[in-house]
Amino acid sequence: MSEHYEHDKQITANILKDIEEHKVHIAFVESDGYSPRFGYSIGLYKEFKHPELIIIGLDSESTGAIINNVKDEIERGNRFIEGVDYLDFLVELPVQFVEIKKEHYPDYLGYAGWYNDNSINFPTLQIVWPDREGKFPWELGFNENFKFKQPLLDRNTKFKFLEERNLGVYTTSEVLEGKPIKYVYHNEDGDWQFHSEQNPDLTKAKLVCLEEVVKKDLTLNEIYYLNYGESAERIDVGEKWKIFEK
């Protein structure tokens, strides 16, 4: 507990120092092998009344350079809005900005929430990059290989999982008939299992679409990020999940 406290204290001190000196701090979270890497700004809202910024899927150097370049433009009085191609932030390719939904804030903007008065009462724009052909994720023909490397946070609040909605996952007939899901497994090979018991009766196993399971219990979105080999369990629906690492 003391180690975590000291680590957190050092991070918050660095945030305050960077904002005092540069008017922005950039937090970066590396990929764990499953969830994509991302970086976000802290300070733009209080310093300039401009939404904070987040970029998903790029390396730390590119993320830092883009956010700092946008901050410089904001400092000059420019503002960024949705639906417009902005040049000069990527080599030969534009970026666009989309406003992210509040439901995604706890997953991505932890220290920004802390800095903004321990709340989610501040706007945030996601800087969205295109594929090598210049197509954005919402455009026909976008390179599918990048789809889950850059989840779009202006949507999908009721389905946060980083896979296709029609992905086949394992459960049991008992869950489909209404028993609560209390045990979730994300196997090393990528398979998902959703069960009501720790040792389910596999003679009742069923293969269903991931979206079907999530629609039955939207609280499964709370553990969408489980890494390969990790599992989660809870006492009942609505209770806090306990995560078990691989």
Description:
- Helix content is 26%, strand content 23%.
- The strands form 3 sheets. The chain has a 6-stranded mixed β-sheet with strand order 1-2-3-6-5-4. The protein has a 4-stranded antiparallel β-sheet with strand order 9-8-11-12, with no helix packed on it. Strands 7-10 form a two-stranded antiparallel sheet.
- It has 7 helices and 12 strands.
- A hairpin with an 8-residue loop joins strand 1 and strand 2.
- It is an alpha+beta fold.
As a percent range, the share of strand residues is: 15-25%
The total of beta strands comes to 12
Number of helical elements: 7
Rg measurement, Å: 20 Å
* Uncertain parts: none
Shape: globular
Name the helix and strand elements from N-terminus to C-terminus, one letter apiece: HEEHEHEEHHEEHEEEHEE
Q: Which structural class fits the helix and strand makeup?
A: alpha+beta
> What is the average per-residue confidence, as pLDDT, rounded to a whole number?
96
The main sheet orders its strands as 1-2-3-6-5-4
Describe the sheet with the most strands.
6 strands, mixed
Q: Residue share in helices?
A: 25-40%
Compute the number of structural domains.
2
Distance between the termini: 22 Å
